[in-house]
Specification:
The chain has 223 residues and is mostly beta strands. Helices cover 0% and strands 44% of the residues. It has a single domain, classed as Sandwich (Jelly Rolls), CATH 2.60.120.560.
């Protein structure tokens, strides 16, 4: 989701290099080998991915590309999916896929999720989002109800993401750290949630397209 201008926690220029994608650890098969294959809507991968919330949209995958399913007119009905079986300290990492012809100012985001949990009308955990033009990275706490969230950190004015870049987020204790291509770019602390699982999410505003910005791969591990 797009919230108020990001609070500056730390800003280190995006650097080329190896991302922090990690081994599957405790994750189901969806976290390994890390590449999306086939087509599913919603994404399941033999039941590895979950989504129970009725107020938000689901994640789909299309021939190696995971993306959202929003219309762009539903407000903060982000598309999300998450795994299960992880310890409290965890890492999520994804490889960016970007349509380079999408250059307008409409909001598109890819999101990593940490300590995520949901039910029919509640979704809680931490969202780490990235704007497709590099306008911001935000660390956002979801408080449960639709549209109820709190920004706890972030950075602004980053270089534009590229296909193949790797975004990683970790949570250890109450500290959330964000990396891009292996370089730390943001960090924040929040003690609201002690348990939950890693996942991925996506957000658009009309007339942006779901398939302009997504993930070609995802890995997660317990730390």
């Amino acid at each position: 989701m797009n919230v108020a201008p990001a609070i500056l926690v730390s800003a280190i220029a995006f650097a080329a290099g190896c991302g922090m994608g990690s081994s599957p650890g405790m994750a189901p098969s969806a976290a390994s080998p890390g590449q999306f294959t086939g087509t599913e809507n919603p994404i399941s991968e033999n039941g590895a991915w979950r989504h129970n919330g009725l107020d938000w949209t689901v994640v789909a995958k299309t021939n190696g590309f995971a993306h959202g399913t929003q219309t762009g007119n539903g407000g903060f009905d982000d598309s999300y999916a998450y795994l299960s079986g992880f310890p409290a300290n965890q890492s999520a990492s994804a490889t960016i896929a970007l349509n380079t012809s999408a250059t307008d100012a409409n909001t598109r985001e890819v999101e990593l999720l940490l300590r995520w949990s949901d039910s029919a009308h509640s979704a809680t955990g931490y969202e780490i989002n990235l704007h497709y033009l590099g306008a911001y990275v935000q660390i956002v706490r979801w408080n449960g109800a639709f549209g109820d969230f709190t920004q706890v950190g972030g950075v602004t004015n980053l270089p534009k993401p590229k296909t193949g870049d790797v975004m990683t987020a970790t949570i250890v204790g109450n500290v959330i750290t964000v990396f891009y291509n292996g370089t730390q770019i943001a960090q924040a602390s929040d003690s609201t949630y002690a348990t939950g699982n890693p996942g991925m999410g996506f957000f658009i505003r009309a007339p942006a397209a779901n398939t302009d910005f997504g993930f070609s791969g995802f890995t997660a591990t317990g730390l």
